[in-house]
Amino acid sequence: MLKSFQQFLECKSTEDIVMKTLFILNDAPYGSERTYNSLRLAGAIAKQEGNEVHLFMIGDAASAAHRNQKVPQGFYNVEVMTGILIRHGGKVGVCGTCMDARGLADSELAEGTHRSTLAELAEWTAWADKVLVF
């Protein structure tokens, strides 16, 4: 991460610049396109060289981390989209309190996601250059 404008001026190329982005998702995975669109953008950013992405699912978005989702053919699958983000180095945390409120056990979480806390969300917020809330 660049600590000063002087460091920015000393960069030889955009490859020297790392963008760290935190996505905070609030909505259920299906019913609106907010979670879908946030995962699309998170995946696109994660695929670009030098970018780091963390994604935190809170509230109704916690159900987006459910393993083995069954969706109609031709419909987007947020579990698959989350997996793409993880394969590109993204980290995905799921609010533990929100999981408990929805009856979602740790064993039911999609591969690569993990039970998280507001303390971790606070750490990720401090880590990020940009925080996008959906």
UniProtKB/TrEMBL annotation:
Gene3D superfamilies: DsrEFH-like
One annotated Gene Ontology cellular component of this protein: cytosol
InterPro entries in UniProt: DsrEFH-like, Sulphur_relay_DsrE/F-like
Any Pfam family: DsrE
Domain of life: Bacteria
Membrane-traversing stretches: none
Record-given protein name: Uncharacterized protein
